[in-house]
Amino acid sequence: MKKKLAIIGYSTSTIDIYHEQIDCLFSDHIIVEKFYVDCANIKKGLKADLILVQSYNVFKMIRPYILKKSEIIFANRTISKAGLEKIMRIPEDTEVLLLDEDAEMATQMVSVIYQLGARHIELTPIYLGADVSAEGKVLIILGQSKYTPGFPKEIVNIGSSLLDISTVLDIAAKLGLFDILQRQNIQKSYKEIVTTDFGLSSLIGKTNRFESELDILLQVLDDSIIGVNAAGVIHTYNEGAEKIIGYKKEYMMYRYGLELLHDIPFKYVLENQKSVKENLIKINGYDVVVSVDPIIHSNRLYGAVAIIRKFNDIEKKQHKLRSQLIGKGLRAKYILQDILGESEAIKKCKKDSLKMAKSNSTVLITGESGTGKELFAQAIHNNSSRKEYQFVAVNCGALPESLLESELFGYEEGAFTGARKGGKPGLFELAHKGTLFLDEIGEISQNLQMRLLRVLQEREVMRIGGDRLINVDIRLIAATNKDLNQMVTKGEFREDLFYRLNVLRLKIPNLNSRREDILPLVNHFKMEFNGSFELDENVEKAFINHDWKGNVRELRNCVEHIISLEVKKVQIEDLPFECKEDLENNVFDDERSLFDRLIKIAGKNIKKYVFVLEELEKGFNENKRLGRRSIFEKSQERNMFISEQEIRTILINLEKYKMVEMFKGRTGTVITEFGRELLEYLK
């Protein structure tokens, strides 16, 4: 005779989903009736073997109509994987309201969501009819809701709540239906549902459930599971096992597993009743890690269960765990497009870094302070094959030796006074599969240099106070503003470590060597700080001629200073640095020293200076003044790549040394006699 199950709750949509879940699992073996709290039929009496109640508040409303012989189960609810993914996409620290059908259910669902790992947001439970406004906040709803409190800025529908697997198992136990639960139906029904119950390890070690119930739970897990009874006969074999072993379930079930699966240590575990943890073996061509645990209850051996995982899958899970452990902050944010500048020097540097990103070799980035060494390190990581993994950065000069050592290598519990309980993984471990960026590498002590050298040679680390080596797969990028060659000569830096680091060398140009980028950078920082000032012509010259010892960082600070003054037209006196050079009176010992100084400023762009001087001389001979646009058009005709901004910088530098005379407005520039002498000198 079929057993009768009654489902009672608030809304038709939710009760229909519960009914669909139960019907798909128990099919025609039970009779399911649906009731709603405002349904008139309830008052006629609830005649059922088992009553599934949505919440305690619902139970209080229908209690007078329940027969005493009827058993009751309160629903444990959960949500779908798709719903959880929507919640995880809500920005961190967002204030979120969760709307459910009553206060008890709302509170329970908030607890479920926190239990499933969504602890990055602040959740507040609310219920239908509550005097709460969601105005300006994010509102989570479960399925369709006609009630919306206030005007939320965003509504996130995570779908109707679902029955957790524990409730389904309780229904089967109460109605005696374990024998008709079909494993494939459990698997299909719970493939997209996030369960809050029963970790596999605690199930094996502590469970008092029957063997059949254990088997049902194993079908839901993602790991490959094979179970044998005390005689070694296979009784559990899930979909994951099919993929690794290569044989279908129908072929493997109820066969003698100790012979079919002789590489898996079932025999040892059954004979010794001891677990075997994480053996690396090969099955069907796969490198797999297998752990086998005996199933013992009340000193009686019921069998053993093997958990099998592909070695590559373990690596991926470790990456996910490391990502959770270090948080979302340790990611490379910058790409090459974020590095500003159109000078030849910076473009070559970006081009070289893109090539280096394709390699897996160690990179040594050199350059003055403030040139953007970490930006280039992040850009290299984001263009490499490791971009999906961690980018872990540490400033070696900011930490004392003992603290830096524990940060880099980690430590075991009790390694020293104040060591964290359980120990702590080091940055080498956290950067596994990703990139470790060591800034100011020239600051580390001789002791740490030795340990770092060993890691680079062996790709193994040992925690402080530890006794085992941990394999790490990292790419190292180091940076320094010091001359490591000179430090090696003085004995301040290990020569062998230097050659380990100096595989791919990237030198970042200072700002003084790419002065054509100065004014575009000023405009960029002005937009970044929402500034609206204009530069006086003399101020532009001052920016270009200033000795930027702090490089781009100093320039950015200078723009921030100007914006704080709230001036519309920036004058010389508004600048945070002194203009030490008198732009009108540059005195040199002789013409040759002047020429040599200008040639040094021009650097690799000397051909562009010659081109500009030649065009100005032609204009002079034709009694014409030339503007930047005219010179730019001439460069296009001669297939010479030179931007208008570069031409402007060249003209300003030439005027500084009395080589040209620039006129305001659109009247153009004319070469001086001194400039003609320079052109002759350069030719």
TrEMBL record:
The entry's keywords: ATP-binding, DNA-binding, Nucleotide-binding
GO molecular function: ATP binding; DNA binding
Domain of life: Bacteria
Keyword Transferase: no
GO biological process: regulation of DNA-templated transcription
All copies of domain PAS, residue ranges: 210-262
Domain Sigma-54 factor interaction as annotated: residue spans: 339-564
Protein name stated in the entry: Transcriptional regulator containing PAS, AAA-type ATPase, and DNA-binding Fis domains
Protein's organism: Geosporobacter subterraneus DSM 17957
